[in-house]
Amino acid sequence: MKPRISMITLGVKDLERSVEFYEQGLGLPRMDSPPEVAFFTLNGSWLGLYGRESLAEDAGVSVEGTGFAGFTIAHNLDSEAAVDELLDQAVFAGATLVKPAQKVFWGGYSGYFSDPDGYLWEVAYNPLFWVGPKD
Q1: Distance separating alpha carbons of residues 18 and 12, to the nearest angstrom
Q2: Of 12, 86, 98, 121, which sees the most CB atoms within 10 A?
Q3: CB–CB of 135/78 below 8 Å?
Q4: How far is CA 82 from the centre of its chain?
């Protein structure tokens, strides 16, 4: 297997609200898709939004779940200023600031927000691990 994540699909409570958050609030480019699902193109992968109950049914698992889901989604940027800007943009779009950006033990700078469904996003600058283009 060649390691790669093609798509991350989030089970959301209110598809319309989540689409607005990711499309208008964060500016992610939305792809054409059926009305019951939304896809956004990322750099080499996709983000999908699908009804929480429908996604649980598709996977054959219970829709019930509470607390920390055991993962975060990370977006790495090329500077501390870019981290601060994206966190501000996310909060303005309706996210909840979970942890303000700050210098961290691994030598970078990061903070966390949660989207309208509580999914945690880490926004980080890691000077030792930057491999992408300048944002």
Answers
A1: 7
A2: 12
A3: yes
A4: 16
Predicted TM-score (pTM) of the model is 0.79
| Structure-token pair, residue 66 | 């509470």
Tokens of 71: 């993962």
Question: For the segment 67-103, what is each residue's pLDDT rounded down to a tens digit?
Answer: 667 678 989 899 999 999 999 999 999 999 999 999 9
Report the sign of the C-alpha dihedral through residues 27, 32, 112, 65, in that order: positive
Task: Using the structure block, give the residue that is written with the tokens 């926004």.
Answer: 123
DSSP assignment, residue 13? S
| Contacts for 9 with CB less than 8 Å, ≥ 6 apart | 47, 48, 49, 50, 55
| Phi, psi (deg, nearest 5) at residue 32 | -65, 135
What is the DSSP secondary-structure string of 25-93?
A: IS-PPEEP--TTEEEEE-SSSEEEEEEHHHHHHHHTS-S---S--S--EEEEESSHHHHHHHHHHHHHT
Q: Which domains does the chain have, with CATH numbers?
A: 7-59 (3.10.180.10), 73-125 (3.10.180.10)
* Dihedral pair phi/psi, residue 8, rounded to 5°: -115, 125
